[in-house]
Design a protein that fits this description.
The structure is a single chain. The chain is of the alpha/beta class. It has a single domain, classed as TIM Barrel (Alpha-Beta Barrel). It is 41% helix and 14% strand. The protein has a 6-stranded parallel sheet with strand order 5-6-7-8-9-10. Strands 1-4 form a two-stranded parallel sheet. Helix 2 packs antiparallel against helix 3, helix 3 packs across helix 5 and helix 6 packs across helix 11. The longest helix is centred in the N-terminal third of the chain and has 21 residues. It is globular. 44% of the residues are buried. It comes from Companilactobacillus versmoldensis DSM 14857 = KCTC 3814. GO terms for molecular function: 5-methyltetrahydropteroyltriglutamate-homocysteine S-methyltransferase activity; zinc ion binding.
Length: 376
Amino acid sequence: MTLTKQKIGFQHVGSFLRPNGLKQARKAYEDGFFTQKDLTEIEDEAIKDLIIKEKEVGLKYVTDGEFRRSYWHLDFFWGFEGVEHIHYGEGYHFAHEETRDDTARLSGKISFNPITHPFIRDFDFVKSVADSVGGVLPKQTIPAPSQLYIELIRGENLKTVNEFYPNHQDLLDDIVSAYHDAIIALYDEGARVIQLDDCSWGLFLDDAFLKTEDGQAYLNSGIQDTLLALNNGAIRGLPDDLTINTHVCRGNYHSDFAFSGGYAPVAETLFAKENVNSYFLEYDSKRAGGFEPLAKVSGDKNVVLGLLTTKSGKLENRQDIIDRVNEASQYIPLDRLWLSTQCGFASTEEGNILTEEQQWKKLKLVKSIIDEIWGP
């Protein structure tokens, strides 16, 4: 039997709390006291330090902690040709907070340019540090194609979609093409594990929303098939040695959440038909529902159980986590399961409400439980 750890390896979902020095540098840059060069130098040093700490905690795959981003998703969207950064006038509404009001809106036709998209340069730096440190591999996280689509058709943003894409299928085709080109560019720079972060399925999970008139319209719109086609289209025909995983989240902002509900409403589409290697799934609270939908995960795809929360610094009970892994193995074999935190520690630059010391303790606990269940 091939152990799951040989396919996945110990890895964190993605983001880490920004160090205070980095936060201060970004503020100085925004206030006009630092140049972009000044900020980049401080980001570089923070990322080098982070990667060393990631190795020390036992991670096989390392990220830059998303230290250069303000948001987990929008910064990537803004890097495409034909997408602009604007202020929407209203943030995303989470359970207890409203976020900042940035969004991505069309300014033309969507395309990818490897020279102007910053994530290519950002990955080059991570890979160079990982190569220098040794014993770790770089991992790139990007928002899923479906997430870009959801952002572009959000409220007033839809007006520019209709302006530039009177034929809606052309929009879908250009998103697929731009993403495929971006993934290939990352591969050409040495990326071998790319993770598609995806909150676009969250609305289908939220019982309170689905009971509303808008929720029923959304549920019956056929948009699940559109989201699936976007994601599968973007990852079709990639090199055999490139692993594509996805992380499905219910929102992660300043320790708050956006959606609640189990995975059953999307299992037949997302779990059965999306052509990824592994699903990183949020399972840190009762809001996530039970493990029964995991039975719909098709083929030999893996599931990484996000059983430890990043929304709180309180350390979970070790045996409780082990028991939940065993419970999940009733629906999908243990050799196709793995363990992680439920999300990153700072999906936006604000970060969640815990300390850096607590975030590393969480990861140490994840690693020790992995070693106990699947072997070191």
